[in-house]
Specification:
By secondary structure, this protein is mainly beta. The protein contains 3 helices and 42 strands.
């Protein structure tokens, strides 16, 4: 909703295309990477080709003390969908997916030290370009298998010619086996999420939700006869995989609902009546859910929700702007209702520890913002709120009316908030602590490039920035100081952090060839 200049929009669009799936490949951060307690060690740089992948290990220390652990490139290829748990349970291997020019897509399991690697699956170029068969890397199981899905019309095997989702798995170096087959004669596979800690793949197919057990291969229907809303029905799975949350607009079910993935029980979290409730977002620990809430206005009998409620329309639904935000537990118990008298809440964001929400507040004015995506807002203040509704004003805002504000990081405990201010001349990054004036972070340089990925590491976080035309670098942000982490040129798209590893896609400026880079970070503070 709130983006920066054109360069930022291009970065977001390219990243969405690169990772293939809806949204970004955000790491849940529960994996354990070895060596996270000491300082990275500079190693001699070595490059070798393993199973058709060019693997480069080692290299000099970066300015912030990090070092390249490994990078992986496929000739003429672009890195594809990357899951959150891309590292093996022992942290010594990585699974990756790439689209190869003229050869379709493929999935590999590769050693981080470049000593070994295996090609696990591939599709033909004709199947990929026609969209009849899609590979989707899902990650590593707890017993060390690489799990992936082959969705579409199967070109071979026991389900040759049938349309559906084949969940497959293999130990590196061993034969790939089908774990489960889920027929999909019609409709679309919208979401596929793998939770190794639950041995489960959660699947959203048009009209239904499923759970596949990767240990015994059982397919369990969680919920059927769900709407599609022309592709806009998007159930949000909690970070722990325990609940789905989604909005329904049916005669007998209108509001936000949760679905227990263990029992299949559906309960109403917030019914649309006096208020319209929308855009539920899970906290990082999955223990709370927050959503916007807008009261009725004007003609209560009007057919359009925009005539009945205090909402602002955009192309596919209301904007993330409302008079209030409610916080509930997954069982529906409301713990807080947030509001600022005389203002609306815009673009709230959970903290990395899942215990606070930060948001900007202001009054909606006429016309459009500088980016043309929402009405101009007269910004008033920045706030942090706790799970039980206790609120503290971080600062009064003096942002130019019409600019956009996008909160990108909330420090644990809510002690500090970082946010981007975007206008016609680019964007600026700011840090603010309670009772202090906002401080701009590193004013020299091009626009900051933010794709929605949470990259918190201890008290720091990472963000890429355009340093000149078609060249991005990654910076480590601590308070109001930005320390340059990378210096290898090209375009960069951060995928996330797991353990003490930062993972990003590096795309060559001239050839668009992509490589997956894994950095080993110094110990978090």
């Amino acid at each position: 909703m709130l983006k920066g200049k054109t360069r930022l929009i291009i970065a977001v669009v390219i990243l969405a295309a690169v990772v293939v799936s809806v949204g970004y490949a955000v790491m849940r951060g529960k994996g354990k990477a070895p060596g996270g307690t000491g300082l990275p060690v500079e190693r001699p740089e070595e490059t070798r080709e393993v199973a058709g992948v060019k693997v480069t290990t080692g290299g000099p220390l970066h300015p912030d003390g990090s070092v390249r652990l490994a990078s992986f490139a496929v000739a003429g290829g672009m890195i594809g969908h990357m899951p959150g748990n891309m590292f093996s349970p022992d942290g010594r291997m990585i699974a990756l997916q790439a689209a190869r020019q003229g050869r379709g897509e493929a999935i590999w399991a590769m050693s981080l030290d470049g000593s070994a690697g295996n090609l696990l699956a591939e599709t033909g170029e004709k199947e990929r370009t026609a969209g009849t068969l899609v590979l989707r890397l899902l990650g590593w199981s707890r017993d060390g298998r690489v799990v992936f899905a082959r969705q579409g019309t199967q070109p071979d095997g026991s389900h040759q010619g049938e349309r559906g989702l084949s969940v497959r798995a293999a130990l590196p170096g061993e034969e790939v086996r089908e774990v489960s087959w889920l027929p999909v004669p019609s409709g679309i596979v919208d979401q596929v999420d793998f939770f190794p800690e639950k041995d489960s793949v959660f699947i959203h197919i048009t009209g239904s939700l499923w759970r596949v057990n990767v240990t015994d291969g059982r397919n369990v229907p969680l919920k059927e006869n769900l709407p599609s809303y022309e592709g806009l029905f998007y159930p949000r799975l909690s970070p722990t995989g325990d609940y789905y949350a989604y909005g329904l607009n049916e005669r007998d079910k209108n509001g936000i609902f949760s679905l227990n993935t263990a029992t299949g029980e559906e309960i109403a979290l917030a019914r649309n009546d006096e208020n319209f409730n929308f855009y539920p977002q899970w906290s990082s620990d999955g223990r709370r859910l927050a959503y916007y809430t807008a009261p009725q206005k004007g003609n209560r009998a009007a057919e359009s929700i925009y005539d009945r409620y205090d909402l602002i329309p955009e192309e596919d639904g209301p904007l993330a702007v409302a008079p209030g935000v409610d916080i509930v537990a997954p069982d529906g118990k409301k713990t807080a209702g947030l509001s600022v008298p005389g203002a609306k809440i815009v673009n709230f964001r959970w903290s990395a520890d899942g215990r606070q929400i930060a948001f900007a507040a202001g009054q909606v004015k006429g016309g459009r913002s500088a980016e043309g995506e929402m009405p101009a807002i007269a910004w008033q203040s920045m706030w942090v709120a706790g799970l039980n509704g206790e609120m503290k004003k971080m600062t009064d805002l003096t942002v130019q009316e019409g600019a956009d504000i996008n909160i990108i990081n909330v420090a644990p405990g809510g002690r500090q908030v970082h946010y981007l201010v975007s206008g016609p001349d680019g964007n600026t990054l700011w840090a603010v602590e309670e009772g202090s004036r906002p401080v701009e972070v590193d004013s020299a340089g091009g626009p900051w490039l933010y794709g929605g990925v949470m990259t918190t590491y201890g008290g720091d976080f990472f963000l890429s920035r355009a340093v000149n035309n078609d060249v991005d670098e990654i910076f480590r942000i601590r308070d109001a100081v930005a320390t340059r982490t990378t210096a290898d040129g090209g375009r960069k798209y951060i995928l996330g952090i797991m353990g003490n590893r930062l993972v990003y896609i590096h795309e060559a400026t001239e050839t668009n060839e992509g490589r997956l880079v894994v950095l080993e970070l110094p110990a978090a503070r």
